[in-house]
């Protein structure tokens, strides 16, 4: 949930097909000719301040040129811990519900529920598998992240800055904070 507005990370980390598993695996190298490319935007809802929307346009391509399938996905974020994912497909209906619950510092519980019409059951199974693989890819990056009190953004990251401002409304001055301890090497 913490990078739902970072559309640019999708084209860096999530372009490999989810069925290949982890990045840099043998299957990832063999399927480089197939890729997923993303465009999108993030906006908060002025009528409901606890709600935000991410609109994604997903293009499945062969050899980075030939479009095999195009679809759009609407992600409705309700507060800091719930996201409703609705892919726009031409047949049937499928909806994903993602829940994020903090357990402690740098620990979260992620629950993914996916509901599909029987006609889209296979698509639903592929979507939940893809969501789990992509979450594993994100966790690999999150394990090495650092927290910057005043992050510096480039012009292309204005949605990320707005997202952080929107996300910050759910925390007060009384919210428990992580205290960092810095050891000095004074002799």
From TrEMBL:
Pfam families, A to Z: KshA_C
Protein name, UniProt field: 3-ketosteroid-9-alpha-monooxygenase oxygenase component-like C-terminal domain-containing protein
Entry keyword annotation includes Oxidoreductase: yes
Organism superkingdom: Eukaryota
Biological process annotations from GO: cholesterol metabolic process
Keyword annotations from UniProtKB, A to Z: Oxidoreductase
PROSITE patterns to which the protein is assigned, alphabetical: ACTININ_1 (PS00019)
GO MF annotation terms: oxidoreductase activity
ATP-binding is among the record's keywords: no
């Amino acid at each position: 949930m913490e990078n739902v507005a970072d559309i640019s990370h999708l084209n860096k980390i999530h372009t490999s097909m989810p069925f290949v598993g982890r990045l840099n695996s043998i299957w990832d190298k063999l399927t480089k000719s197939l890729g997923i490319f993303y465009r999108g935007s993030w906006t908060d809802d002025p009528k409901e301040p606890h709600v935000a929307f991410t609109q994604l346009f997903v293009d499945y391509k062969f050899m980075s040129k030939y479009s095999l399938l195009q679809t759009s996905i609407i992600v409705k974020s309700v507060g800091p811990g719930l996201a409703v994912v609705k892919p726009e497909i031409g047949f049937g209906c499928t909806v994903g519900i993602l829940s994020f619950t903090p357990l402690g510092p740098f620990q979260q519980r992620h629950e993914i529920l996916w509901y599909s019409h029987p006609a889209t059951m296979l698509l639903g199974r592929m979507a939940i598998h893809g969501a789990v693989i992509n979450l594993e890819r994100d966790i690999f990056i999150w394990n090495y992240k650092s927290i910057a009190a005043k992050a510096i953004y480039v012009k292309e990251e204005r949605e990320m800055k707005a997202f952080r401002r929107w996300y910050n409304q759910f925390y007060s001055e009384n919210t428990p904070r992580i205290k960092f301890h810095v050891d000095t090497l004074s002799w």
